[in-house]
Amino acid sequence: MEKVPITRTGYRRLLRELAHLRGVVRPQVMEDLQEARSYGVKVDNQSYLVARERHVVLMRRIQELEHKLHQCEVFVGRKFALRQVGFGTIAEIRNVETGETFRYELVGPFESNVSVGKLSVQSPVGQSLMGRFEGDEVTVYTPAGIRIYRVISISF
Fold first, then answer.
1. Is the pLDDT of residue 100 over 90?
2. At what angle do helices 26-37 and 46-71 cross, to 10 degrees?
3. d(CA 96, CA 151)
C-alpha cells in the first residue's frame, strides 16, 4: 500500500474528526435508529428509513477516515534548509500571463484545500512546483489549459 504524506496538523485533524464521529455522532445516530425501529421495520416507516440511511453514511465516513489514517505517513520536517519548494513549504507564485499572485502551502492530498491556501503535492501545479527554486518559471498543464507561473518566494 502506498503511503500518503500528511502534516502533523492534518493528521491530528483527521483523528479529531474520527473521534468525534465515533464518540458523539454514532451514539446519537444509533439512538435515533433504535427509536425509529421501535415503530416497526416497514417500508412506510420513513423515520426508520432515514435513520438507517444516516447510519450507513456515517459508517462509510468512519471507514473512509480509518483507511486514510492507515495510509498516512506523517511528515515531520525537512532534513536540510534549502530554499527549494517541497512538502510543507509555503510557495508564493505569480501567473506570468495575468499577474495574479497565489500563496500555497504544499501538503498531502488528504488535507489539500485550495480555497484556504493548501495545495496538494499530487495536483498538476503541486507536482510542477516540487524541487523548484525562487525565480524559476514553471509550465503547468492543467485541465483548463497551459499556465506559466514564476516562483516569487519560498518560506517554511
1. yes
2. 150
3. 10
- Specify whether the CB–CB gap between 18 and 65 falls below 8 A: yes
- The Cα 98–Cα 102 span in angstroms is 12
The enclosing domain of 115 has a CATH number of: 3.10.50.30
d(CA 137, CA 27): 53
Pairing of strands 101-107, 90-95: antiparallel
Neighbours of 35 (CB within 10 A): 12
Q: What's the rounded Cα separation, in Å, for the pair 131 and 126?
A: 10
Grid cell digits, residue 132: 523548484
Across the chain, what does the average pLDDT equal? 90
| pTM summary value | 0.76
Query: Are 15 and 66 members of one domain?
Result: yes
Distances (CA, A) of 87 to 17, 34, 59, 117: 23, 46, 32, 14
